[in-house]
């Protein structure tokens, strides 16, 4: 294994608030918050007196559980980040000592307490999400070492579990089969989105023995696999929407898939260079399709 650059020391006794916020990566909160919103939409229930639960769920999905997963990942990836992204809070020393681990542990506990206040099914979803967050990054499981399994865990955590929680909050009960099928398909498709996120760290992943799909398959093959994984579940969703009598919504989702396919042609020309661009364009179309589906399956 190649030599890893030593992590810098820091003169801060405690981390600065801005560094902590950077560690929790607010930009990543959008995906689970959006998925939670899809759960709300798919429930078919009016907000009414459930506003406090909805706000609590949004806080749980984004700043708490997603924020925790980012802190956990950065702590256990601090040596990889020293190669790929040395300016991150932990390798740069802005989060000194073992503060990164402490923040992850405290945020985990607070998240589970908040989830318990939102109902039993939300609590179950949060507990599963936390198990996946720690298993993805922390040894001995460290699911991220296998791009197939790790990306599926992230897809479920970012799309499926928040969607489930949103529907459960609104219904006060276990979501129905249409919701479960839809969130499962979009969680699977998110596997491809997670693969695109790994293009930025190919060098460090290979040096540290992390078998992300780009590191394992190479950029070109990994990109083709990612595109296929994103497209197939959405096509299945279109067929199901049509079978459930939602032809208009099926047509809208199909048109969004067509637009994604056009963008994928450009992505395939230069996967590493175009992955960030696709995440800002094609992924946006993907999540719009999620919301269209959510409204289509309301009882």
From TrEMBL:
It is a multi-pass membrane protein. This is Chlorophyll synthase ChlG. Keywords: Cell membrane, Chlorophyll biosynthesis, Membrane, Transmembrane, Transmembrane helix. CDD domains: PT_UbiA_chlorophyll. The chain crosses the membrane at residues 103-136, 148-165, 177-199, 225-244, 250-268, 277-297. One of its GO terms (biological process) is chlorophyll biosynthetic process. It is found in: Membrane. GO terms for molecular function: transferase activity, transferring alkyl or aryl (other than methyl) groups. It comes from the Bacteria. The keyword Transmembrane applies. The keyword Metal-binding does not apply. It comes from Lichenicoccus roseus. The gene is chlG.
